[in-house]
Amino acid sequence: MNNIRLIATDLDGTFLKNDKSISPSNLETLRWLGETGIVRVAATGRNMMKVREVIPEHVPFDFVVYSSGSGVYDFRENRHIETTSIPAVTANLLIRFFLSEDLNFHAFYPAPDNHLHWVHRGSKFCEEFERYHQHHFKYAEPLPAEGIIPSGLSQFLLVFPGDEQTFFRMKERIEAITDDIRIIRATSPLDTGYIWMEIFHRSVSKGNGVLFLCNRLGIDPNATMGIGNDYNDIDLLEFTAHSFLTDNAPQELKQHFTILPANEADAFAHIIDKMKTEWTEI
């Protein structure tokens, strides 16, 4: 791993501790990487407003791939450098389907304003849906009465009970409507056992966000490292040349990647310490 030039890490469940704090070891490791000239990327499902809640300005990341790749942010220069949205025609096509199926859903504005969103309640009560809405209600507005929105979207969010069969049946039906999207599975960050379905433009992924940075910075993808902990990190870990999964990841993912300690045991600092040792031995 002595040729690494860029390291991308997920935040929740990977770089952050369970209480969303940053350990002193991880923070010091991040600083060391900067001194060594390695590009430091946070690759997260959070939008930039939510990123700011856990990554203050003094934390030395160079870039943030946010909202699972819907946007890329230059953290040093405080500016957005890339955004990708679901076109309005596709977004409204999906909305009509969700309404016909009587589903609860959130529909998020294009990045970088994608903390703002429309919300629709179906007739079936969903505790997780209401829990999410309670956390974000001040940024939400009801879906227009006619069920048509005027712009594209960064993403949709639908929530399912912890029933994989229901999730995959609905995924298959949605994918049959249009090939303009990709669907990502995520474990509820609220630790409630629900499965989140996130729907993005087909080109959106954490891996493509890091690829954009590699192209922009002239970095060979073979000189990249990725660290994650959940289903929505798979595309990142499949892109990066050296890829690692924390021990708190779902069991079914662990056979595919090298396992690090859990996020609570400073997985990020652990693998960088291993890099330091390898460099010292060369």
CATH superfamily placement of the largest domain: HAD superfamily/HAD-like
Number of DSSP strand runs: 14
Shape assignment: globular
Helix-strand sequence: EHHEHEEEHEEHEEHEEHEHEEH
Number of domains: 2
**CATH architectural grouping of the largest domain:** 3-Layer(aba) Sandwich
**Count of alpha/pi helices:** 9
CATH fold description of the largest domain: Rossmann fold
Unreliable residue runs: none
**CATH class term of the largest domain:** Alpha Beta
Major β-sheet profile: 8 strands, mixed
Structural class category: alpha/beta
Which bin fits the share of residues in helices?
25-40%
Mean pLDDT: 94
**Radius of gyration of CA atoms, rounded to a whole number:** 19 Å
Determine the N-to-C terminus distance: 11 Å
How much strand? 15-25%
> Looking across the biggest beta sheet, what order are the strands in?
5-4-3-2-1-12-13-14
Q: What's the short version?
A:
This protein has 9 helices and 14 strands. It is α/β, with parallel strands linked by helices. The strands form 2 sheets. An 8-stranded mixed beta sheet has the order 5-4-3-2-1-12-13-14.
Fold topology:
Elements: E1 6-9, H1 11-15, H2 24-36, E2 39-43, H3 48-54, E3 63-66, E4 71-74, E5 79-83, H4 88-100, E6 105-108, E7 117-120, H5 127-136, E8 140-142, E9 155-160, H6 164-175, E10 181-187, E11 195-201, H7 206-217, E12 224-228, H8 234-239, E13 242-246, E14 258-260, H9 267-281
Helix pairs in contact: 2-9
